Amino acid sequence: MYGRDHPNTEYLLNNLAILSDEQSKFEEASSLYQRALAIKEKALGFDHPETASTLNNLANLYYNQGKNAEAAPLYLRALAIKEKVLGPNHPETASTLNNLALLYRDQGKDTEAEPRYLRALAIREKVFGPDHPSTKEVRENYSDLLQKMGQKTEVVDQEE
Questions:
Q1: What is the pLDDT of residue 3?
Q2: Is the pLDDT score of 156 beyond 80?
Q3: pTM for this model (two decimals)
Q4: Is the dihedral of CA 116, 117, 120, 123 positive or negative?
Q5: Taking phi first (over 0 means left), then psi (-120 to 50 degrees means alpha), and beta for anything else, what does residue 90 get?
Q6: Which of 4, 81, 116, 159 has the CB geometry, 3.0–4.6 Å to 101, for a possible disulfide?
Q7: In a 10 Å sphere around its CB, with 0-12 CB exposed, 13-18 middle and 19+ buried, how is residue 18 labelled?
Q8: Do the two domains 1-86 and 88-160 of this chain adopt the same fold?
Q9: Which CATH code for domain 1-86?
């Protein structure tokens, strides 16, 4: 038996949170992610990549509900951890950059979104190549932003 604060308990809580989110039980998912986060912070530390992963999951939950004010600081904290621990050019760093850029785009903060898309795209192109689905996802998101800003997307579109 592991106990309520064991990292394996966190793993189960995180999986239950994902399931709750998929079932549109958002309050339950939020509570489960928060419990998982507390365990990770206690067991692994505040600057551990797994802590950043749970922060990102909780931020995604809030973002998908339109709770951008709650999501933004979680994305920023997750990004800071990933940049510090995994490095500025790690694929996980790119994932959080993309998520943060999506949030900024939705908030109308296009000038804040654009450099994050560009960084995420550069990382994914270097790590995965231009034709990888993860790279294409960021490229499409960036293209959507450029269209929203009224800019040409030919260069971005030609890379597809």
A1: 67
A2: no
A3: 0.89
A4: negative
A5: beta
A6: 116
A7: middle
A8: yes
A9: 1.25.40.10
Chain centroid to Cα 22, Å, comes to 17
In order of 30, 63, 85, the CA distances from 67 in angstroms are: 12, 5, 27
- Summary mean pLDDT of the chain: 92
pLDDT at 160: 46
Each residue of 120-142: pLDDT tens digit?
Answer: 999 999 999 999 999 999 999 99
Q: What is the CATH number of domain 88-160?
A: 1.25.40
Domain ranges of the chain: 1-86, 88-160
H, E, C per residue of the chain: CCCCCCHHHHHHHHHHHHHHHHCCCHHHHHHHHHHHHHHHHHHCCCCCHHHHHHHHHHHHHHHHCCCHHHHHHHHHHHHHHHHHHCCCCCHHHHHHHHHHHHHHHHCCCHHHHHHHHHHHHHHHHHHHCCCCHHHHHHHHHHHHHHHHCCCCCHHHHHCC
